[in-house]
Amino acid sequence: MPAIDLTPWLLVKIYGAGLFFDIVAAAYFSIPIVFYLMVVPDKIYQGRFHKPVIYIFSFVILYLLVFNSFSEYFFFDEFGVRFNFIAVDYLIYTREVVKNITESYPMPAILTVIAVISFIILMSFRKLIDSSIAARSSLKQRIKSGFVFIFRVFA
To answer: In this predicted model, what pLDDT tens digit does every residue of 125-136 receive, in sequence order?
Structure first.
């Protein structure tokens, strides 16, 4: 790996670009829940089963994002680069790769840590989620807001 003169300004640019791409990825990840909130009828939106659905869906999304972060960390540690064609090649040999990973890493412990981190993140947003669910809004208002969000993601 060639030596790079990591000046403070270069680090700001590197992490700034990474933050931008992560925000874009988060926006795309949020589209399913935005779409769900747009189309769910008021009776369901304000019903007692809606809150657990939102929490479960949010946990799954957070779990996938944290899992991806761990995957990128271990991939970078192994190959010295972010996900690239090597990762795509791994998709062809899935069985062998999964076997190698489970032999090389303590997967139950890693998956448990990912679940705990995801739960902590979810609970840190609990007040925001609860207030959002408790806020009264009509289906029409949610559709309008949802289309504005989705338009901005694709614009």
So the answer is: 999 988 888 888
